[in-house]
From TrEMBL:
It comes from Duganella callida. GO terms for molecular function: diguanylate cyclase activity. It holds the Pfam family GGDEF. NCBIfam families: GGDEF. This is diguanylate cyclase. It catalyses: 2 GTP = 3',3'-c-di-GMP + 2 diphosphate.
Length: 389
């Protein structure tokens, strides 16, 4: 039943490989590993008195366990240990062949295979502990790997140090317990790997829901979530924040001249330039079309203007192989924690339109406002009126 379940789990893993995002790697290797383990059990069941089939069964199952390690390494974006994989199964072939035909010793064969399999599991445990995130799924997966490795090495130690019956074809108590536990743990390790894969899928989906797919910076939703956190911090600490509203100048002309593909490259370049010009604590978002926002936490007007000028300077530099462009910027400083995000956005937007009206390729500073605006009016018309005032 455990073997049949392993075969079913291989189908589940391969289906996940086909349907999960490509960033989640290792599923196909784990699916292939289970197929090999099932095949190894089948060969072992049919081997009878054939030492060749016995050797083949051990090699095939070692391939399966090795692919579990390879899949785990791929999942954590590490270089697969193919050298260790090949060394392990070749040692199985040489060691088992020697102690099968030249100097027959069942205990030595068990010890050799146990040590080699333990090395594969130990490598996987090291990778999980070093690269896994601090989460229940990682602890669950690593614990299952640890239990399986302890089972394997215990059998190897008992084979050499006692008269315990470690022959899995026998009727001893240890053989029964080992078979049940080992087969169960193989299935549970697969469940553990699916758990960390599901966790990775959750993180990816959350990230995609808050990132702009073109520029890979925050989108509206991501910006709103970040602003809520920074605003709560601002209220607790009594600090200030500054918002920059950045709009690409003459973007329609860029699209008409270079096509939408060229326009997309401009947007990607603008996002990259802004991200490199700001601090690591600042947040950059694409708010729609050619409009970008930069939130500067714990930043007053004077340091915010330094960052604004740095962005303007960076944008004016020529970019080989990419259409050049400039930006108009509106700067709005929030000192009142009771001011709403909508009001802050409107003030920054009005200042940006003033920069447009005053010649583009520049920035304007929004005046402080202590009252909520009347919604439903044209922001552009209000901004033009304010510029004239």
């Amino acid at each position: 039943m455990a073997t049949l379940m392993a075969g079913a789990m291989s189908v589940v893993l391969y289906s996940a490989h086909l349907n999960f995002p490509k960033e989640i790697k290792g599923l196909r290797d784990w699916a292939a590993a289970l197929v090999l383990l099932v095949a190894g059990v089948g060969i072992f069941a049919l081997h009878g008195n054939s030492n060749i089939l016995l050797l083949a069964a051990n090699v095939v199952m070692t391939w399966g366990l090795g692919l579990m390690l390879i899949g785990t390494e791929k999942f954590y974006r590490l270089r697969p240990s193919w050298r260790l994989f090949h060394i392990t199964w070749l040692c199985i072939v040489i060691g088992l062949a020697y102690w099968l035909w030249i100097k027959p010793s069942f205990a030595t064969r068990v010890a050799i295979s146990s040590v080699l399999v333990f090395i594969l599991h130990a490598r996987a445990i090291y990778i999980i502990c070093k690269n896994g995130e601090r989460h229940f799924s990682t602890g669950f997966f690593g614990s299952l790997m640890l239990i399986e490795s302890l089972l394997v090495i215990t059998r190897g130690i008992l084979a050499l140090s006692s008269d315990a019956d470690v022959n899995l074809m026998g009727a001893g108590r240890f053989a029964s317990l080992y078979l049940a536990a080992a087969q169960f743990m193989t299935l549970m390790m697969t469940v553990g790997f699916m758990t960390v894969c599901t966790r990775r899928l959750q993180i990816l989906l959350e990230r995609r829901s808050t990132l702009d797919p073109l520029t890979q910076i925050l989108n509206r939703r991501g910006f709103a979530e970040i602003y809520a956190k920074e605003h709560a911090m601002m209220r607790r600490q009594g600090s200030t924040m500054t918002l920059l509203n950045i709009d690409v100048d003459h973007f329609k002309k860029i699209n008409d001249t270079y096509g939408h593909a060229g326009g997309d490259q401009v947007l990607i370049g603008v996002a990259d330039t802004i991200a490199k010009a700001v601090r690591i604590s600042d947040h950059v978002a694409r708010f729609g079309g050619e409009e970008f926002l930069v939130l500067l936490p714990d930043t007053g007007l004077a340091p915010a203007l330094q960052i604004t000028e740095r962005i303007q300077t960076a944008m004016r530099k020529p970019r080989p192989g990419r259409p050049g462009c400039t930006v108009s910027m509106g700067v709005a400083c929030q000192t009142d924690p009771d001011e709403s995000l909508d009001r802050l956005l409107i003030r920054a937007d009005q200042a940006m339109y003033c920069a447009k009206q005053n010649g583009r390729n520049r920035y304007e500073i929004a005046p402080q406002s202590g009252s909520e605006p009347t919604f439903g009016h044209s922001i552009e018309r209000d901004a033009m009126s304010e510029c004239r005032l």
